[in-house]
């Protein structure tokens, strides 16, 4: 059975102020729903994350700002820090933990500067949202053994879905092929499938693939 950490609830005092903050961070707004004046829920997802945060009104009895050490994994903590600062976020200097990652049991646990050995998991930066909910940027360049789930074979349903997408792509590509010169069909296929998986309609995906071929591959239309 698959189990994924999907949502972390954070307590806030001013919903609109918090919404503006996470929009500024570049998090994706998934939902902003208010049932009435007593209940409102917002969901934001960090870039390319499979887990999201939820906050709002009538969501949790926890004290606003009590969430601590929410971790965002980044492959370059300096670059991530620079990006957030450019967005107007107050981010700490890069640091490492004297006793190893997340060890706050020692005196003066945070030491300024990157991990001297440049180890994955060891370098951090921190920031807070307007209520004081604390975030950590943790640099992870290489996953340690056992830190990633083994991929499983696709199910019959997934194979059937892929087969249907390939059939659709072939059909749409036929329209393009009849009016354009020699080209690599796989380039058009890749652009079309990428657009469909991004949520575009078949017509939108076909237009995206056509643009890709014209801009990147310089394929011209055949004479009528």
Describe the secondary-structure layout.
Blueprint lengths: L6 E3 L5 H11 L2 E9 L2 E7 L6 E6 L12 E5 L2 H10 L8 E3 L12 E3 L11 E5 L5 E6 L16 H24 L5 H13 L4 H16 L7
Parallel strand pairs: 1-4, 5-9
Antiparallel strand pairs: 2-3, 3-4, 6-7, 8-9
Structure in words:
This protein is of the alpha/beta class. The chain folds into three domains: 7-63, Roll (2,3-Dihydroxybiphenyl 1,2-Dioxygenase, domain 1); 68-144, no CATH class; 156-217, no CATH class. The chain contains five helices and nine strands, in the order E-H-E-E-E-E-H-E-E-E-E-H-H-H. The chain has helices at residues 15-25, 77-86, 156-179, 185-197, 202-217; strands at residues 7-9, 28-36, 39-45, 52-57, 70-74, 95-97, 110-112, 124-128, 134-139. The protein has a four-stranded mixed β-sheet with strand order 1-4-3-2, with helices on one face. A three-stranded mixed β-sheet has the order 5-9-8. A two-stranded antiparallel sheet has the order 6-7. Strand 2 and strand 3 form a beta hairpin. Helix 3 packs across helix 4 (185-197) and helix 4 (185-197) crosses helix 5.
